[in-house]
Amino acid sequence: MDILNKFDNGEFAFSKDDIKADFKLLTRALDASYSGIIITDNLLPDNPIIYCNEAFEKMSGYRRSEIIGHNCRFLQGADRSQRARAIIREAVANGEVCTVDIRNYRKNGDLFWNELFISPIVGDDGKVTNFIGVQNDITRRKKSEQDLRAQKDLMEKQVLERTKDLKESQEFLYSIIQTVRESLIVIDPDFKVVSANDHFLKTFKVSLEETVGTGLYELGNHQWDIPQLRKLLTDILPTNNPVEDFEVEHDFPHIGRKLMLLNAHRIELEGQYKDQILLAIEDITERREIERRKDDFLSIASHELKTPLTTIKGYVQAMERMVPKDSGARFLGFLSKTAKYLDRLNNLIAELLDVSRIQTGNLKLHKVPFDFDKMVKETVEAIQTATQNHNIIIEGFSGVQVPADESHIAQVLTNLLSNAIKYAPESGQVHVYISKVSNYVKLSVTDSGIGISPEDQKKIFERFYRAGDIQQRFPGMGIGLYICEQIIKNHDGTLWVESEKEKGSTFSFTLPIQAKEDNEQ
């Protein structure tokens, strides 16, 4: 109690030195602050700055002597139209607290953003005597915000552009899909139709309303409930492999029997297989009918030509036997050429008949085991007798009996050898190589002729196909290799070609060896 009494009686009082020390400590504390601090005198005109700490000097670039006495607005320079200034004026006029972000300019003119906290200091009489302002440099934050806004604006612009491009692409794709002369539909995992193009609707006589959203098998009163189609969608497509050229024949109640070629692919996006399936349906009914009619024509024409040709050949042979001894060389030449061209025409008609039999499934094979190596040797000897400019060399052996139609296999070899000689007129040799590979016998015919381009190799076994450069230089119909491939195919073998332009070609085929030797492997 004595101590309190002494304090109340004024016996303990702060000295001027104590006050100076406290003020010095306070000043050091303010100067040590990271934030810029100013104090203004609200009792003086224009509310001038009467104090600033070192952080404010560093922040503004001005010295203390250049700051004291100025109103805070000098930091905004000519940038006086900021909304933040109106907020500050209103707070000062009402003696209130406020917080603003304001653009200020350093002494060197550089812009910096200032986060300003203003608070009034009230005297004993309740009047605002001063304002204290605490300021932080938020230039980096503002720049980040501006960059973020700019990035956001850019992204929004890009999204709009991408959306526009996507819409245009969709419209473009839609226009293409609608003009494609092929039926296209997209189905979901439950085999419900997601979309269908106009060609599908017109071909199968259905409307868009009764198609989209309907199960594929339910379309047109279950017209599409086709066992082959079910097999395709439930067994083949789940493997994620595309289905190409899958033939389906079906009798539709309203449009009749249709032969269709189906191609199906899972829709892929960003490397992931999605659940939707694109199904392309090509109606090949008319095309197949045209091909059938053409095959019928070839068959009929070949048979009709065969009879008079046989008669003419007989007369020519009779004339050859009855040639007078005193006949001139010119007459004998005409007779020989006539016989030669009759043989060529006879071979051509025989090939056309073979094509007709293959197309109608009437190619008859008489499979009897025969000595493969002996057949090759005899065939080569027959070809070698007819050619004087090429030497046919046989290499290797198989030593096996092959259960096949010997005459047709000899026909294949004859065609391959004839082609090797025909398309390599400058080459002096043709190589025939025989080997036994696993449970197959393999034969290869190699020439050093003009070769075949990769593009033509893909089509060379197609019926009536001839490469452009070959067509111009060598006559023919392009059915020989087709017949060869079909003969080998009907023997469960394979025929293929390996070739480079101007470096020659190698045609090879394999045939399965008879069952007895197959079991011994």
UniProtKB/TrEMBL annotation:
Query: Topologically, how does it sit relative to the membrane?
Result: Multi-pass membrane protein
**Gene Ontology CC:** membrane
> What EC number is given for this enzyme?
2.7.13.3
Q: Which reaction does it catalyse?
A: ATP + protein L-histidine = ADP + protein N-phospho-L-histidine
Matching entries from SUPFAM superfamilies are given as: ATPase domain of HSP90 chaperone/DNA topoisomerase II/histidine kinase, Homodimeric domain of signal transducing histidine kinase, PYP-like sensor domain (PAS domain)
The protein's matches in CDD domains, at most eight in alphabetical order, are given as: HATPase (cd00075), HisKA (cd00082), PAS (cd00130)
Q: Which residues form the PAC domain?
A: 98-150
What PANTHER family would the database entry show? SENSOR HISTIDINE KINASE GLRK, TWO-COMPONENT HISTIDINE KINASE
* Name of protein: histidine kinase
Give the species.
Answer: Pedobacter yonginense
Lineage at the top is: Bacteria, Pseudomonadati, Bacteroidota, Sphingobacteriia, Sphingobacteriales
